[in-house]
């Protein structure tokens, strides 16, 4: 007797507006705590570097997009989790990214407004907290200059620190394994728009030998959608990008040992 197959239903996940948090006393005293922003091309994560939330999940996790119809005012834009259902408004999405680089700083400003407002920053016209923000490997100087200008001139932050999220992860996992500092390793970072291969030698990133591959979760999602639409042409309207992202993130596997076919769940970086 054959084993019954598992049948999964689409969750059709819908977003709900994020609450406006209040700043804990630990984040203000004895000095303002840094705000950490993982500025990803698929998702943005933001929270505090200290206080109660230090060991918890990020306070905010939302899609790095803004929905604004043509000719609408800036105040009419919906950012992140303010967009309840992504699929009907996908054609109006505007992203701050081109591939993995921030180039549209009007949208980036909307994302920062969303982050600071929902974290409970109530100061008018400036942010008194230092900011730690992620950036892609070998980020062009012009992109960093424009990001710094936005943070310093528009928000008046006192200090800004930049870092590569995959190297943060490499450092954290190396130290958690018992090593004092990471020495040598190879980091393979699979993002939404592209992937990076980063050699880390003797405690430093070998930037000259970094490689970027223009293949990531976005291309895999579009390819999966195209394959399923060709196989099931009668159900093309039901095969949406949102559902393909759910299939990719929840039910896709990769073989760690390809020769023996041992699968393990692959979670694409968001």
From TrEMBL:
Q: Which domain of life is it from?
A: Eukaryota
Q: Which Gene3D superfamilies match?
A: 3.30.420.40, Actin, Chain A, domain 4
Major location category of this protein: nucleus
Can you supply a Gene Ontology BP term from the record?
A: regulation of macromolecule metabolic process
Q: How is this protein annotated for GO cellular component?
A: nucleus
Q: Which residues, by range, are in coiled-coil regions?
A: none
Q: Which UniProt keywords apply?
A: Nucleus, Transcription, Transcription regulation
**Subcellular location, in the record's words?**
Nucleus
Q: Which InterPro entries match?
A: Actin, ATPase_NBD
- PANTHER family listed in its UniProt record: ACTIN
The Swiss-Prot or TrEMBL record describes its family as follows: Belongs to the actin family.
Name recorded for this polypeptide: Actin-related 5
Q: Which species?
A: Labeo rohita
Q: What is the lineage of its organism?
A: Eukaryota, Metazoa, Chordata, Craniata, Vertebrata
């Amino acid at each position: 007797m054959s084993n019954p197959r598992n049948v999964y239903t689409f969750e059709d996940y819908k977003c709900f507006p994020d609450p406006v948090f209040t700043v804990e006393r630990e984040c203000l005293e004895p000095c303002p705590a840094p705000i950490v922003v993982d500025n990803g091309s698929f998702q943005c994560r933001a929270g505090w570097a200290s206080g109660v939330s230090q060991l918890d999940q990020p306070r905010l996790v939302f899609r790095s997009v803004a929905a604004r119809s043509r000719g609408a005012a800036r105040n009419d834009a919906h950012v992140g989790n303010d967009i309840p259902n992504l699929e009907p408004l996908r054609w109006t999405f505007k992203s701050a990214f081109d591939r993995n680089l921030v180039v549209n700083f009007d949208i980036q400003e909307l994302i920062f407004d969303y982050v600071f407002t929902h974290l409970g920053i109530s100061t008018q016209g400036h942010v008194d907290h230092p900011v730690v923000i992620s950036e892609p490997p070998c980020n062009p100087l012009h992109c960093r200059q424009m990001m710094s200008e936005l943070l310093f001139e528009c928000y008046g932050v006192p200090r800004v620190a930049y870092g590569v999220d995959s190297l943060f992860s490499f450092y954290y996992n190396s130290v958690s394994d018992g090593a004092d500092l990471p020495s040598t390793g190879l980091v393979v970072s699979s993002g939404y728009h592209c992937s990076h291969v980063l050699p880390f030698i003797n405690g430093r990133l070998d930037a000259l030998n970094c490689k970027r591959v223009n293949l990531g979760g976005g291309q895999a999602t579009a390819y999966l959608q195209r394959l399923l639409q060709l196989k099931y042409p009668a159900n093309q309207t039901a095969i949406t990008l949102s559902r393909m992202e759910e299939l990719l993130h929840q039910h896709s596997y990769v073989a760690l040992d390809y020769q023996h076919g041992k699968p393990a769940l692959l979670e694409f970086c968001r």
